[in-house]
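We now fix the convention by which a protein and its fold are recorded. Here is one such record, which you should read through line by line:

>
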Amino acid sequence: MRYYPIILSILFPIWLLADNVALKAYVSANEVGTGQQFQYSVEISGSSSKLPPISFPDFSEFFIHSGPNTSTSIQMVNGVMSSTKTYSFILQPKREGELKISPATVKVNGKQVSSNSITIKVSKSPINAQGKKQSAPVDVRDNEIGDKNVFFRTWVSARNCYIGEQIIVEYRLYFRVNIRGYELVKIPSNPGFWSEEFQMPSQPPIHTEVINGINYNVATLRKIAVFPTRAGELKLEPMEIKLEAVVQDRSRRRSIFDSFFDDPFGKVVSQTVTSKAVKINVSEFPTKDKPDHFDGTVGDYKFIVGVDKTNISVNEAISLKMTVQGVGNIKLVNLPVLTIPPDIEQYEPKIRTDINNKGKYINGSKQSESILIPRVPGEYQIKPVTFSFFNPSKRKYETITSQPLTIHVTGEQTLASGGTITGSGYSRQEISLLGKDIRFIKESADFFPLSYRPYLSPSFWVILFGMFISFLAFVFYNEHQVKIQSNIKLARSRKAGKIASRHLALAKKKVDQDDQYEFYKAISSALRGFVQDRLGLELTDFNSHSIQKVLSEKGIDEEVITTYTDIVTESDFRQFANIQDSKEARRDFFEKARMVLTKLEKWI
């Protein structure tokens, strides 16, 4: 028996590894020509640094030009370690048609884990980046992003539900290109639904997802909870966004390594993407076992009724609270009505509603608090009340009945207007405001004497002259600012240094924080924005060739230009790269960026 803890400590990591190992496969393209190459990757991840070996699928239908090539990454988040190992092959199909790559497998503790299978469509003609056939094996990169590189989807937690049931809706952006930014163009109103917004982080979290064998980055741009208000077939309307992505503006032969050597200074292209409408089938409430007092409340709730004390004196205040808490549309919950004995005075209840929109579902609480004051001694009972709701997860009605409350009142009966109300922190002034509606009327007012002559004093003229000079200074300053604002390029140029300094200050704050994305984003914004604003460049003109040309024309040293472009390139790469660097590396990178910005300020 004493060896059990040792045995468990040895076996537990093995069981944990078996439960946490995940395997997925993806390709760089699922439609290719017979002469085209593509990359096949298998990714294994788990909570241990020692991941088991993978059994690769049969590649007899393909030429293997390279592989397996491996890469490993280890992450530590909140004290929990995870590791990922990727195996990649460069393949070329041997024939036309649909070629299937079977799943890769791995065995952990006797349990087999499999990846997804992938189907490759092979045609005689080459396929370009947008998935279209072309006459020659040349990848022409134009101003189109392509539907296969970026698309927008509406994800819902359920398509069949009851009236009032909570449905989670996420608007997800799938992309394989560098997204510079986005803006919401059309936000759906979704008639027939009550909507509640979830609180989202300023930077949408990004994860990866394999669709039709292609690995996409996925960002959730908006998350809401909807509650149908009527039965029938309802429709969630499409959402539309406008995004800016970087595409390359040169023509060259397609290479499988393009994603690694893409020019971060490529053209910025705008494109509008729209999600599709989603139909939701809403059912009526079931009639079986439906309570007579059911009022349409839907969710999963707890119901509590209680008082802060049960033994009090006459004219002493007590607090009666009735609380409903749980998951559902808490704003539409109707609290039941309590029956209070006639010898107990009840004041208007205060209703408090708390909504939590940060979790997986919308949840919260609604509370009613009443002040009760017994005027006559005796024993009183507040009868139980029932709260009924429909629980969609269990597909049945639930009824919660409160416990009866007994209150013992001692003392002698007095008039309601007399005495002082004590207890529970409440006073008579908090319950009834008396004598506060009429303010005291002043019987006299202070005036200056008739002999008072302020203009005879020298200080009067000094103040008047100072006001005149201040007015003239304000007029001249205002005209100067109007001239600057009317010249947009001049205004941008003058503010370039200040704006760049703000971005660098933000980057400095992020150095010691584990927020690598925001750090490199701030560095990139500082350097890019400074050159754009100081030289009056448009965003679409900001590419490597034009920047080097413009800076060279300004007489800037070639070493400074090279350092500048290297820092911007690395900043853009590390924003989205799955590579964790140290705080020391970020401090060194920050100093390099600060130094090159200082040198640029002297030249331009």
Remarks:
- The longest strand covers residues 62-77.
- The chain is about 25% helix and 35% strand.
- The chain has four domains: 4-127, 150-283, 299-431, 488-603.
